[in-house]
Amino acid sequence: MQNSFANRFLALSRERGHLCVGIDPSSEALAAWDLPHDFSGLVRFCDTLVGIAAPRAAVIKPQSAFFERFGPDGMQELKRVVWQTRAGGALTIVDAKRGDLGSTATAYGDAFLGAGSAFGSDAVTAHAYLGIDALAPLFTRAKSHGAAVFVVVRSSNPEGTLLQSARTAGGLSVAESFCEAITRQNAADDVGPIGAVVGATLGDETAGIVARLPNALFLAPGVGAQGATVADVKRAFGGAYARCIPSVSRAIAMAGPNEMALADRIERYADESRLA
Ligand SMILES: O=c1ccn([C@@H]2O[C@H](COP(=O)(O)O)[C@@H](O)[C@H]2O)c(=O)[nH]1
Question: Where is coiled-coil annotated (predicted)?
Fold first, then answer.
């Protein structure tokens, strides 16, 4: 599809670099900006950060949990963040890590994916704990709406290893079997609508995963506060870095609330994230 998420990201990344700015309005982040821990604080945090990030970064990733904790008002703000991101020319990945089956998976697509969905996001993150093939309705919606789904394959946190590295009956690890399924889903495209979340913190393990995903985008959280650098991501993903979206949340927000300092931090990360 001409106007697919992948094609839009590849074009934007040539212009702006590969950076994804994570929007994580946690209690700590609001306190660090001297904002009240209520809806007004949430709105001021998001309006400032997204207003500066959306015209500079390729992708904005609001973490849904930090909006959900404010109830319906928070979800309304999540929708406004998606709109503000689009106005700034960036793509949105709502980090909601949804995952279910059948009509419920369809409903998650109706909620998040593409024009006509409730939130109107360009992409959503998903879990495959109920089976990656159970996410088929979400994948179908992504394909027909020029949107994307990023399935957690190998997360950035150490606690993920036990489950994601466990061996399936066929001998592949759970993560490797997800890679095979994603590659099947993306078979019709040079770069397909089903991406993989692969942590920025995995080091040498990354190459084996990337080799199994020749036509997928990668969302790589873990840069900054979790210890990885953009240089680590470039090294780990090697030739596949052209399809990689390194994501930074706290390490950017912590430059605020000063707007010039925030803009400077985002521009530095965006410059560093460019393909050499
Ligand atoms: O494997 C994963 C998947 C998602 N995340 C999320 O990304 C951000 C990371 O925030 P930082 O402040 O840049 O560490 C956060 O919303 C996580 O829930 C992840 O870290 N790892």
Answer: none
Domains of the chain with bracketed CATH: 5-273 (3.20.20.70)
For residues 203 and 196, give the distance between their C-alpha atoms in angstroms, rounded to a whole number.
Answer: 16
By most ligand atoms within 8 Å of CB, the mutation choice from 26, 46, 95, 97 for ligand 1 is 95
Do residues 101 and 134 make contact, with C-beta atoms less than 8 angstroms apart? Answer: yes
Kindly provide the ipTM of the predicted complex, given to two decimals: 0.99
Query: Which residues are known catalytic residues?
Result: 97
What residues have CB less than 8 Å from 12, skipping those under 6 apart? 58, 59, 89, 90, 91
Q: Which of 98, 249, 250, 265 to mutate to test the pocket of ligand 1 (most atoms within 8 A of CB)?
A: 249
Average pLDDT in the 116-138 region? 97
Measured in Å, residue 195 CA sits from the centre of ligand 1 at 16
Range 83-104 average pLDDT: 98
- Which residue has its alpha carbon closest to ligand 1 atom 16? 63
pLDDT band at residue 268 under the 50/70/90 scheme = very high
Would the CB of 197 count as within 6 Å of ligand 1?
Answer: yes
Q: What is the pLDDT of residue 1?
A: 75
Return the higher-pLDDT residue of 2 and 191: 191
Give 46's pLDDT tier (boundaries 50, 70, 90).
very high
Structure tokens at 136: 């088929």
Q: For residue 199, give the ligand 1 atom closest to its CA.
A: 1
